[in-house]
Write a structure and sequence with these properties.
- The complex is a heterotrimer of chains A (82), B (340) and C (400).
- Chain A has 82 residues and is an all-alpha fold.
- Chain A is built from 4 helices and no strands.
- Chain A has one domain.
- Chain C is of the alpha/beta class and 400 residues long.
- Chain C folds into 2 domains: 233 residues, Thiolase/Chalcone synthase (Peroxisomal Thiolase, Chain A, domain 1, 3-Layer(aba) Sandwich); 149 residues, Peroxisomal Thiolase, Chain A, domain 1.
- Helix content of chain C is 35%, strand content 18%.
- In chain C, α3 runs parallel beside α6.
- The radius of gyration of chain C is 19 Å and the shape is globular.
- Classes of the chains: A mainly alpha (82), B alpha/beta (340), C alpha/beta (400).
- Chains in contact: A-B, A-C, B-C.
- Chains B and C meet through α3, α4, α5, β3 and α6 of B and α5, α6, β3, α7 and α8 of C.
């Protein structure tokens, strides 16, 4: 599931030069690590809804949930409706 | 107001249906038979990192690439103004967002596509890329967009507000939108629907090498014959011309608008660039770029002339762009060593 | 900057959520009556968002302008025509005057209200082909201008939310340099599904009435409308025998150069546009009597703009209000709609309220929360900040 999630993130954010194995599961996704920004966070919110049926109303909550791949995967497992 | 204000074109760079970021088109232009042709893109990696490029469509990557090249060639790190023209903005992102909206509904739409679809994205992105806090604006007036942007730069120079300006025109196409262009007669029968990204760096520093000078610019809506004649005379009186760079394209309706030149400026060769660069809302920028290249080289190549013979640039080049038979843009470029 | 060509404002027109003309808008401002409410005119599934719509159907606008039914028009163009018509009448402009004038319009959506309805038809059949040529921004401006006469020059600026402000700034430059005697400048924008959904995807829309600068603010409410100013040289105004209503005394344009949709934390672009406008007008910050803020109600803009205002004005910060809680955020038209509001404030001696403001917050300025009447204003600053960091500021001054 982690691999699938990484592939989805790479595709949705158009991270052309990044491979799933390049992304450390515990590394921060925002700021350092992958260096994503607020627009990427919004794209991930759309991804969560489209692929996993999770609707996030508050963009600020996104920063916590998208802290790392592991944190994100954990949240999806607990809240997915698809 | 500086009477002897001399505005120089330091550099000009293009990505179009000709080989990108170079002038090989002058001797060996690529030729096409298709009605819809996409631009030839360079390797963008030398201009934009993969990280930055992740949310840039083609139009934005081309805008950055041509801008960075023009700044490098012109020897300016940060221009005082960044002004662009675009007729349709980012077609790629507009289409993706609109398509999803119309076909899939009003849910789960992608913010990046919306964000990058606004017309001023290119101009502001160039500002972000060059860390430039200077004057920044975007014009969208169909085939007159670049001319409006250039006129704005012209105003800023004359007010003494700026010493340099990066003026660009960026338009891209898709096969869906190319059909729209034809249906709306923005591209006419016999014309190639194309794409173009042009960045021109202008300034007033006389110590900098330059292609040519920009000596004047007039923009008119539905002028009377007298107003048109007055505009042309005000620019060209006392100046020898070696050519008139027109927006003629081979289409009868379009070309008929330029008929008045035969009377008003007889004996000066009429030139055209649409057979080389195709037709899009940024076409007039390709005309200015082509004319500037001619003055830099000292010769108008055969591919731009009507009779297929090259012409020596022993005079200025008048640019005449006519949009929809009603908007006229007339400007004059002169060689640096021009004493005509 | 020393200039011997003042830019006079000799007329204006407006159509917005708080009124269909100058008189109605003035009434609403003085009564502090918001035009924001639930969506009635736009056909969208997103009825949860309050908006500031112009209270007219397209059909009603067509009849107002005497347009034959079946003529391809777009909502943005129709609103523009109404506002332009009023502006020209207020400046006493006839056909001959129009021919001496340039027209600069600010718009970003253009004819998208029709394109989003007919997009599949454009692709699949010929039933609505007439609307393909009404899609782009430039065509929209032509439709508005051509309705009134033959302008000398037509141009369209598209810098998102600062479009109309930049149109007014350009007009001032053209008049100062003597290229033209009269320029009609402003902007027009209708609400479309395209940008309602676009802003929603950026999660910056408030589900309730927006509250600029308020501690509990949660985003913006979209609005629509159009407004135009008639700007003129003193010589031309004298020749035509029209009195100046005010002076466009300063304009500043700067790029935030930070991010496509967010403003920098220290409001650099805003700081620069205000500073440039003051320098252009030859004024000190302490000369400004009122600031009509961009004040969209988003957490980001309001704190960024507050920071910038504090940097410019320090301890001499004048009264501030955002009128977007009355009109909604009219995007490309906002610079002109808010300039007209500033003109009314100057003329009638009042400061409009920052409607819906309740709770102050340390990182934001505290705006005026009720209409202040009986004030004498000399210089008013009006901010318009667009996506991509296209930041612009106008200064409008009392005519001597």
């Amino acid at each position: 599931m982690i691999l699938k999630l990484k592939q989805e993130i790479i595709e949705v954010l158009n991270l052309e030069d990044v491979k799933p194995e390049d992304i450390d599961n515990d590394a921060p996704l925002f700021g350092e690590g992958l260096g994503l920004d607020s627009i990427d966070a919004l794209e991930l919110i759309v991804l969560m809804e489209k692929n996993y049926g999770i609707k996030l109303q508050d963009p600020a909550k996104g920063k916590e949930i998208f802290k790392s791949i592991n944190v994100m995967a954990d949240y999806i497992q607990k809240n997915r409706t698809r | 107001m500086a009477q002897d204000l001399k505005i120089r074109i330091y550099s000009a760079r293009q990505i179009s249906i000709q080989e990108p970021l170079q002038e090989s088109w002058m001797d060996a232009p690529l030729t096409y038979t298709d009605g819809y042709v996409r631009a030839v893109d360079p390797d963008f990696k030398q201009f934009v990192s993969a990280g930055d490029a992740r949310r840039m469509g083609r139009l934005l990557k081309r805008a950055i690439a041509t801008s960075v090249s023009a700044l490098q060639e012109g020897g300016v790190d940060m221009p005082d103004a960044i002004i662009t023209g675009t007729g349709f903005g980012s077609v790629e992102n507009t289409e993706l967002f609109l398509d999803a909206l119309v076909r899939e509904g009003e849910q789960m739409l992608k913010p990046t596509q919306f964000m990058q679809s606004t017309h001023n994205t290119a101009s502001s992105l160039i500002g972000i890329h060059t860390h430039c806090h200077g004057y920044n604006s975007t014009y969208s007036q169909k085939g007159l967009s670049f001319d409006c942007a250039l006129y704005d730069a012209w105003l800023q120079f004359r007010m003494g507000k700026i010493g340099s300006a990066l003026v660009g025109a960026h338009d891209e196409m898709s096969s869906v939108f190319s059909e729209f262009m034809r249906k709306a007669k923005h591209v006419r029968e016999g014309e190639i629907c194309s794409e173009a990204a042009i960045s021109v760096l202008l300034g007033t520093d006389e110590s900098k090498p330059a292609y040519c000078t920009l000596d004047g610019l007039k923009l008119l809506n539905r002028p009377t014959s007298q107003e048109l004649s007055d505009a042309i005379h005000s620019l060209t009186d006392g100046c020898k011309l070696c050519g008139v760079m027109t927006g003629m394209s081979g289409n009868r309706e379009n070309d008929s608008w330029y008929g008045f030149l035969n009377e008003l400026i007889p004996d000066v060769p009429l030139l055209s660039y649409k057979q080389i660069f195709g037709v899009n809302f940024s076409s007039s920028a390709t005309g200015l770029y082509a004319a500037a290249c001619c003055l830099k080289k000292g010769q108008i190549p055969a591919c731009l002339t009507r009779n297929g013979a090259p012409v020596r640039t022993d005079g200025g080049i008048l640019l005449v762009n006519i949009v929809d038979g009603r908007h006229y843009s007339i400007s004059l470029l002169k060689s640096l060593c021009g004493n005509y | 900057m020393a200039n011997d060509r003042s830019v006079l404002i000799t007329g204006y027109g407006i159509v917005s959520a708080i009124g269909l003309n100058v008189s109605e808008v003035l009434d609403s401002l003085l009564a502090n009556r918001t035009g924001i409410g639930s969506i009635k005119y736009l056909k969208t599934g997103h009825t949860e968002f309050p908006v500031g719509e112009v209270k007219l159907t397209d059909g009603e606008m067509e009849r107002m302008m005497g347009i034959a039914p079946g003529t391809p028009t777009t909502r943005t163009a129709l609103m523009g025509m109404i506002a332009l018509h009023e502006a020209l009448a207020s400046a006493g402009m006839g056909a001959g005057d129009i021919e001496k004038a340039a027209f600069i319009n600010g718009t970003t959506v253009g004819g998208m209200d029709k394109s989003e309805q007919y997009y599949l038809d454009f692709i699949e059949n010929n039933s609505h082909d007439a609307y393909i040529s009404t899609h782009d921004c430039g065509s929209c401006s032509e439709m508005i201008a051509d309705r009134m006469g033959r302008f000398k020059y037509i141009s369209t600026i598209s810098t998102a939310c600062s479009s109309a402000a930049n149109a007014i700034g350009q007009a001032a430059a053209m008049i100062r340099l003597g290229d033209v005697d009269i320029v009609v400048a402003g902007g027009s924008e209708c609400i479309t599904k395209f940008h309602l959904n676009g802003f929603n995807s950026l999660m910056i829309l408030d589900h309730d009435q927006c509250r600029p600068f308020d501690a509990g603010r949660a985003g913006l409410n979209l609005g629509e409308g159009a407004a135009f100013l008639v700007l003129e040289s003193r010589e031309s105004a004298q020749r035509r025998g029209v009195k100046p209503l005010a002076v466009l005394s300063g304009y500043g344009n700067a790029c935030d150069a930070f991010h496509q949709t967010a403003s920098s934390p220290n409001g650099e672009g805003a700081y620069l546009s205000m500073t440039k406008a003051l320098a252009d007008a030859g004024l000190n910050p302490s000369d400004i009597d009122y600031i009509n803020a961009h004040g969209t109600g988003t957490p980001n803009n309001d704190v960024s703009e507050s920071q910038a205002m504090r940097r410019v004005f320090g301890t001499s910060l004048p009264p501030v209000s955002s009128t977007k809680s009355l009109t909604g955020h009219t995007t490309s038209a906002s610079g002109a709609i808010e300039a007209v509001i500033c003109l009314m404030a100057l003329k009638h001696g009042f400061i409009p309220a920052n409607y819906a403001f309740e709770n102050a917050m340390e990182d934001c300025v505290t705006p005026v929360d009720k209409v202040l009447k009986g004030v004498s204003l000399n210089h008013v600053l009006c901010n318009s900040f667009g996506f991509g960091g296209n930041d612009s500021s106008l200064i409008i001054s009392r005519a001597e």
